[in-house]
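Morning!

This is the sequence you dropped in the shared folder:
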Amino acid sequence: MDKIERVARAICAARGKNPDGDSGTGALRTVRRGNLVTQDRDPIPNWRLSETDAKVFIAAQEALEMGDDT
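The structure's back. Tokens below.
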């Protein structure tokens, strides 16, 4: 697990969501189950929705650690 995923999971958990829970926002796909054809969404874990926030947090933290006052 890389740093971005760890931070994204922590952000997701802080928001009260299960990081591994399905976000329900994946692309639509057609699925055949026996004689039934239906559509559902590709499962995307909740933590993936916090990746951008995690990248921003990591960048800000690294800037603070560098002590760059410009």
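Headline: The chain has two helices and two strands.

More detail when I'm at my desk.
O.
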